[in-house]
Design goal:
Mean pLDDT: 80
Strand content: 5-15%
Distance between the termini: 50 Å
Radius of gyration: 17 Å
Largest sheet: 3 strands, antiparallel
Low-confidence stretches: 4-9
Number of domains: 1
Number of helices: 6
Strand order of the largest sheet: 1-3-2
CATH superfamily: Winged helix-like DNA-binding domain superfamily/Winged helix DNA-binding domain
Helix content: 55-70%
Number of strands: 3
Length: 141
């Protein structure tokens, strides 16, 4: 039993270091890569149309990450627009992302009819790790 406890403690410690490491390297390079990925996706739609290449959840995550890096707040409607999908699809994707713990919805204290969405802390770390892992490919291009 002691071995299992040691392994669990080591995994927890590595997880904490991973979060700290991801946040340390989550600088302008993350913003650059996220913007570039998002813009590439928009350009692809211009050439080939929207119906073949729809991935609204990913567009939302990229858009929310970029907004967060710029200290911008994103309302639910804007998140749907940023994902280039219908309102019903956008709301459904937001709900799925929220159910999976990837984003957090917050009420607007000034307007009861509006709410904002942002990445959860866990997803921000995941996005930072992902964007960091793709930075080499992006910078070589």
């Amino acid at each position: 039993m002691r071995l299992a406890a040691d392994v669990a403690a080591q995994n927890a410690e590595e997880g904490e270091r991973s979060v700290v490491h991801a946040l340390e390297r989550d600088g302008d390079i993350g913003l650059f890569v996220a913007e570039d990925l998002y813009n590439q996706r928009q350009r692809r739609r211009e050439f080939f149309g929207e119906e073949l290449f729809g991935e609204p959840a990913w567009d939302m995550l990229l858009d929310l990450y970029t907004a967060e890096k710029r200290n911008d707040r994103v309302c639910v409607t804007a998140a749907c627009i940023g994902a280039n999908c219908s309102g019903t699809t956008g709301f459904r994707r937001l709900q799925q992302l929220e159910e999976h713990g990837l984003l957090v919805r917050e009420a607007d204290p000034k307007d009861a009819n509006r709410s904002f969405v942002r990445l959860s802390e866990k997803d921000h770390v995941q996005m930072a790790n992902y964007l960091w892992s793709t930075r080499g490919t992006m910078l070589r291009q």
